[in-house]
Amino acid sequence: MEINVSARDIRAFLAVADTLSFSQAAQQMHLSQSALSTLIARLEDAFGTRLFDRTTRAVALTAAGEVLASHADQLLSDIERTVTAVRDVSALRRGRVALAALPSLAARIVPRLFRAFGEQYPDITLSLADTLSEPAFELVREGRVDFAITAANPTYRDLDYIPLTTDTFVLLASRGHPLGQVSGAVRLVDTLAFPHISMSRHTSVRQYVEAAALQNGIGFHPAFEIDHLATIGAMVVEQLGVAALPTMAADVISADGLVRRPLVDPVIRRSIGVVKRRERSLSPAAEAMLALLKRQIDT
Question: Please, which domain of life does this record's source organism belong to (predicted)?
């Protein structure tokens, strides 16, 4: 049974129940007595029973009215708490934002983003999934994060991708490595004569390098497949190979003894953007986070 009862109806009922007077209750509600009587009559129709016994001399609660009176205060409190909670979400006084990000972006972009967001909206809970590209897309698809900051992947056509910036690949080599002693840019094809240390096949980094090598008619077969940037940096320092990485990923590696050279022929550019579910609106907090991210990228 559907009952259409508003908070105003409940307040009017409580005013009559507390005063046992339609005239006094009408004054409290800033209504005419006839308007209040109409409102109570509509409420009784909604519940299908009389709530008050009325005579010319007195007003009394019926058994049904006493039951409603015993629950009405709690009902109003629940409504008010619900309204407050919804308004808090809209006003960014309550909520949660969950992000996924590639490790290099989690290290370079997210800390500053979270700090600035937390200063502006201290009551919003933040969480981060530091993960590779394909798992990041899956987290968005499953609704476990609001959005992901990652490289473009046309495989996930059911998700929306919003480009933010581009990341150009560079070559990392040890100072003692032949390519580390070269000044200026290095052609990708010239690096392929040496062992490469690359990320695993399902990562965006590997896929971009493989595609660039194919432009030169050469297959890309790294000597080592590593998922952690610190390990890649350490292995490059020990001259176990060279690494073609996006600039943002290279920036995360702080090992001594490394040199960085621009990669050309071709120049490899990786699109970085935000992935979110299609036709699903972001929460107000997530919208604010995305707007802040765009401002930070632009600056």
Answer: Bacteria
